[in-house]
Amino acid sequence: MSLTIKNLSKQFDTILVLKNINLEIQQGEFLVLLGPSGCGKSTLLNCVAGLEAIEDEGCILINAQEVTDKAPKDRNIAMVFQSYALYPTMTVRKNITFGLQCRRTPKAQIEQTLRKTVELLQISDLLERKPAALSGGQRQRVAIARALVHEPDVFLLDEPMSNLDAKLRAEMRVELKNLHRRLNATIVFVTHDQVEAMTLATKIAVLNQGVMQQVGSPDEVYHTPENRFVADFIGTPRMNLIPGKLAQSEGKVWVQSNGLRFPAGHYSFREPPNEGRPVVLGVRPENVHATLGDREERTTLGVDVRVSNVENMGADLSVFCEYQDTQLIGRFLKTSEKPSYGEQIRVWMDCAGCSIFCQSTGERL
User: Which residues of the chain have pLDDT under 70?
Assistant: First the structure.
């Protein structure tokens, strides 16, 4: 089912926590609400679920039917919380089927739905256990199973993997993605973890201080961020941001910074570039290389830097460098020679996939 949020604002006392939110989520989409702690992600999810009343302005529609004033039980949604919220005195079987029993669903239908759901999530052997006897990953599967049995129109997941260790989170990401493919369900997933967002989402909505910053596919928000906040928030290590000014000569466009001219003639400006305009050049760490290699010289510039730190990431190295008053981060392949702390080296910055932002507004040019 589709989910539409129109002009939604939410205020607590005098604090406006959501500001004119508009979102369109189609049937079968996996939307991830991404942003730092306190940006309004969970509040927005609670508004969709009906756990927070919308007293200010805006409306919510599920499958084109307005549900703004409906109680949670009348919205046909299912929610999985960060804490899982399982009943500790009930077995897994009882936890999953309790809601169906409260709705007086026929026993035969409950058993059929239970069997299908536990087989899908591979927890058939856990039915007689209680939550205390389960691992974190098993508890999460039970919480998802409890949501699945109601066959909701929309699944709402509020940071469901934040209590798991890194290995288990990676495994559960794969399971959630596979589950989404099998069910073709409409899912809204809240997280502050960009890795979860990039790996799970078909669409990412980036929030900051209650304002929607950008909505798009993972590739769109990563490669063409709409502003400096999105550029800086998405990506590990973070994007290199270099202040400078636009310059033009011989029909070419450059970003002039501390005596260096970064090539920007290939860049698709949304408005004509103005000579001398203060800007910020954004270059991803994977576009900062140890060697020139076979990259095009027209988009690549060599920069002399001093190494301040090296992080071994396994398949590659994150190399932190000082360039005058700016920190640059490069991702070097392990085949490159490992630089040492304090060493003076030359790095090659490929600006072919760069971003350019207005220095005052932070918006993409």
Answer: 336
Model pLDDT, residue 348: 93
The two beta strands, 15-25 and 3-12, are: antiparallel
Q: Look at residue 26 in the predicted model and tell me its pLDDT.
A: 95
Count of CB atoms situated within 10 Å of the CB of 60: 23
Element (H, E) at 179: helix 166-183
Beta strands 344-350; 316-323: pairing state:
unpaired
pLDDT of the residue at 293: 76
* CA–CA distance, 189 with 328 (Å, rounded to integer): 33
Q: Which residue has the tokens 């290995």?
A: 167
Instruction: Report how far residue 189's alpha carbon sits from residue 79's, in angstroms, rounded to the nearest whole number.
Output: 10
Note whether 60 and 74 are within 8 A (CB).
no
pLDDT for position 46: 93
Share of the chain residues as helix, strand and coil, in percent rounded to the nearest 5: 30, 35, 35
Return d(Cα 189, Cα 187) in angstroms, integer: 6
Reading phi first (left if > 0) and then psi (alpha if -120 to 50, else beta), residue 183 is in: alpha
Antiparallel, parallel or unpaired: β 252-257 and 288-289: unpaired
- The DSSP-derived string for 45-82 is HHHHHTSS---SEEEEEETTEE-TTS-GGGTTEEEE-T
pLDDT at residue 32, as a whole number: 97
Asked if 291 and 347 touch (Cβ cutoff 8 Å), the reply is no
Q: What is the pTM assigned to this prediction?
A: 0.90
